[in-house]
């Protein structure tokens, strides 16, 4: 990191701290003042496991629906730097992970794009996995940046996110692939393809949330 980038980060951090001091805290789920997450919204973050298969047949188990309180809390974690919210979201993800992860399986995450990591300074999916009590093994990396998904139909999205990931050797082990939100499943399918190409045994996916299909359109603006 250059000293200039480092200086910028220091300035941004100082500004953020100043703003946090002067701006009132509000519940990430409902906007109630003076609390980071109110008890009502916390109660809305319980796991309600939902299972589906992607177009390529990958089994995906999601802890909650990406709407209402869970969607707002996850957005605040991802887009407003409110990393402490990971702790409130983690139990739901953790319960699903515990349910599907068999002994010997490797837990890994779908990586953030490089641009997103530069902007945020943290990896939300890794943070969620760690707060859930799992230590993800970094197997995947992006070898290509897909273009913005907004405005692309289902087929075009699939092409857009194909061939993005490359995996380190897995040598026959089963893999549990973790991501924050599943929309079409195309990203998970591409990550699973890369894992299998690297020698993975069975690959299954777990996500914190799933976008209800009828409302899947709006989730394209969701940066990973
Ligand atoms: Zn609330």
Bound molecules: zinc ion
| CATH class (first level) name of the largest domain | Alpha Beta
Number of separate helices? 8
Q: In CATH terms, what is the architecture of the largest domain? A: 3-Layer(aba) Sandwich
CATH topology of the largest domain: Rossmann fold
Taking strands numbered 1, 2, ... along the chain, how are they ordered across the largest sheet?
Answer: 1-2-7-6-3
Order of helices and strands: HHEEHHEHHEHEEHE
Provide mean pLDDT, rounded.
90
Oligomer state equals single chain
- Please report the total strand number as a whole number: 7
> Helix proportion of residues, in percent?
25-40%
Structure notes:
- It is built from eight helices and seven strands; from the N terminus they run H-H-E-E-H-H-E-H-H-E-H-E-E-H-E.
- By secondary structure, it is of the alpha/beta class.
- The chain has two domains: 41 residues, no CATH class; 178 residues, 3-Layer(aba) Sandwich (Rossmann fold).
- It starts with a helix and ends in a 14-residue tail after the last strand.
- Bound molecules: zinc ion.
- The site of zinc ion has 7 residues, from helix 2.
């Amino acid at each position: 990191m250059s000293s200039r980038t480092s200086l910028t980060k220091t300035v941004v951090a100082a500004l953020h701290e100043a703003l946090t001091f002067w701006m009132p805290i509000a519940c990430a789920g409902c906007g109630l003042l003076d609390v980071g997450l109110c008890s009502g919204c916390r109660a809305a973050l319980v796991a309600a496991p939902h299972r589906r298969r992607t177009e390529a047949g990958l089994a995906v188990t999601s802890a909650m629906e990406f709407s209402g309180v869970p969607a707002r809390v996850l957005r605040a974690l991802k887009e407003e730097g409110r990393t402490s919210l990971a702790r409130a979201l983690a139990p739901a993800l953790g319960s699903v992970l515990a349910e599907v992860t068999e002994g010997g399986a490797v837990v890994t995450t779908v990586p953030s794009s490089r641009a997103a990591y530069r902007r945020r300074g943290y990896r939300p999916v890794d943070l969620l996995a760690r707060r859930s009590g799992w230590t993800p093994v970094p197997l995947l990396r992006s070898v290509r940046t897909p273009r913005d998904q907004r405005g692309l139909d289902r087929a075009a999205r699939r092409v857009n996110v194909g061939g993005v990931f490359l995996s380190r050797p897995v040598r026959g082990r089963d893999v549990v692939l973790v991501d924050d939100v599943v929309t079409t499943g195309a990203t998970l399918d591409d990550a699973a393809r890369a894992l299998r190409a690297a020698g993975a045994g069975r690959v299954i996916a777990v996500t914190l949330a799933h976008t209800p299909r009828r409302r899947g359109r709006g989730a394209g603006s969701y940066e990973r």
